[in-house]
Every structure is written in C-alpha cells, then in structure tokens.
Amino acid sequence: MPAAPQVRGSVYREFAERLLSRAAGAPLIGGNAAELLIDGEAHFAAWLGAIRGATRRVLLENYIVRDDAIGVAFRDALVGRARDGVHIAVIVDWLGCLGQSGRRFWAPLRAAGGEVRVYNPPRFGDSFGWVSRDHRKLLVVDGTHGFLSGVCISARWLGNPGRGEPPWRDTGVALRGPAVAELEQAFVSSWNSIGAPFDQPIAEGATIAAEGQVAMRVVATEPASAKLYRLDQLIASMARRSLWLTDAYYVGIAPYVQTLIDAADDGVDVRLLVPGASDVPVVAAMSRTGYRPLLRAGIRVFEWDGSMLHAKTAVVDGLWSRVGSSNLNLSSWLGNREIDVAIEDADFATQLAARYEADLQ
Length: 361
Prior knowledge:
This protein is α+β, with helices and mostly antiparallel strands. Helices cover about 35% and strands about 25% of the residues. It has helices at about 5-25, 40-50, 70-85, 105-110, 180-195, 225-240, 255-265, 280-290, 290-295, 330-335, 345-360; strands at about 30-40, 55-60, 85-95, 115-120, 135-140, 145-150, 170-175, 215-220, 240-245, 270-275, 300-305, 315, 320-325, 340-345. Strands 4-3-2-5-6-7-1-8-14-13-12-9-10-11 form a 14-stranded mixed beta sheet, with helices on both faces. α4 links the parallel β3 and β4 (about 115-120). It is globular.
C-alpha cells in the first residue's frame, strides 16, 4: 500500500508531460543550459558576440531590423562573417520592417554572399494575407548557441539618454544544449515557407551534447496552429499557487480570461503586469477594457511605471517559466509565427520570479 501514492504520482506526471507536449506540439528536452537576458543592452552584447564568433552558420529571424546604429552594427557583423565564409541566412518581416529597413540596407550583406528573405510581403488579390506576421526574435549560431526573446534589433530598446528616455524593459533567453536543434528547425520552417528549401545541413537534437540540467519545450507557433494558446490555457488551469504574467500587448479573449478567473477562484495568486504607457496606444486602450473581470475575480493587474514594457513572460508555482516573442492576444496565438521556450526548472523560475517582483517596485 505505501507504494500506491508513488505510482499514482508517476502516472499523473507522465500524463501531464504528454498533455503539455501534445498541446504545445513540442517534446520536453533535457540537458540544456539557460541564461536569462534582461533588456536590450545585454541582448545586443550577447547576440553580437555570438555572431562575431561564428565559424559555420548564423541563422537570424527577427520581426524588426531597423536602419539605425544597432541595426547597422548587426548587419556589418553579419557581413564580416559572410566574407570569411560563414553561411548567413536572415529572415525579416515585411510589415515589421516597413519604414525601418529595406533592400538598400541589406545590399552589403547580399553582396558578401549572405541570404536575406522577407516574410509575407503584400500580394495582389490577397486582401487579408498581410495579417500573418513573422513576429519571432530568434538567433542560432553554429547550431550550438541559441537565443530567443521579445527584443527587436533597434536602438529604440536602448532608450534615449539625451532625452531622458530609459531603455525598454524586455526579456530573453540564451540557450545551449539539445534544444538548440529545435530553434534551428523552427528557423528552417520559416525559411522554407518563403522560398526554396534551406540547403544546409542542420544538427539533430540527439547529436548535441548536454550542456546543463534544464528541461524545456521549444514552442514554435505557426499561423492557425494555436500551439502556445493551448499551452497557456493548460498551464493556467494547472497552476496551484501562483501565476505571474508579464505581457506587452495583452488583449484577453473570453476562454483565456475565464481560465485566469477560475485559477484565482481556486486560490491561485494570479498577477498581470502590462505597460503603463504603450508604443501602440490603441492596444493599451483595448487591454484596459479587459481589466474589470480580472479585478472582480481578485486578479491583481499592474501597469509598469517606466519605459515601454515589451517583455512576454510567465512564471508558475516557482517551477515553470515561459519566455519568448508571444503576447497574450489573438495575433500571437493564431496569426503569427512566434517562438517561445517553456522551461521546467526551479532555479530559472526563481530568477524570473525575482525579476517579476523587482519590476513591481
């Protein structure tokens, strides 16, 4: 009889793992190292350092690459590696880069042998095709170092000290280990959706050595797949003690809002941190219209008292975390290509929870 609870626990654990993997369309992968990156300066330093140290290939997929000091630094770093024979492949989003950068900006990279593709430009006769965007912020170097985030490649993330504008608040992750292969495969899927298939070999997860003890799922959302939406719903339903959300463009829909309310009714400490001042005011207005049912349920809603809050994170029960490009809205859940990582590691969750509490100060 004493063994029964252990058997039951192992059965439920296996069931939960299968449920989460099916919902996310992503297996749980162990043996990784994960480092939390906070704000633009840390991101740009890590990303540029990895690019400049590349010896085989650089895969970069980002919603916005802006023609400013930061964008030029990245382009020139890519040009330098391309001239040394490193394979460079870049994907940018047409709408994200509209008025930010164009063919002239990328000409030096193409001349050096790098490849650049633009996701989903307008097509004649396709009135609503523009709705789907590549909102990912993804970098993979040499198949061994991976990064994903909410940060775009633009000096806006650094603020403007001359005008007293502080840096934008954002969050990302640097990864090493078998999960990096999933990032490469996500990039290749985007690449192949635009044109001819990717023609370079990429690593399989089983061939990449373990770099740590962190287990994670790489959730590579594609239009209409709703992978992260299903995962977000499940995690909110499974939370036992705490569910702390940070989101730049929260626009809750009824099923998800009800799941948050149900969690709060069950005694879960549900919190939502959103921007106080948004770079997209109409979204901020839509977000505020959804506060009332949350507040009535005892969910605490905080507006960031600082620069633009652009992070997209969740930390649950001090054990489970999500970081990436997806916002809590229909565009991210159903319309866009997004990339997030769901991490099952208490140490990482503790770091993210500490960051959350610091953001509330």
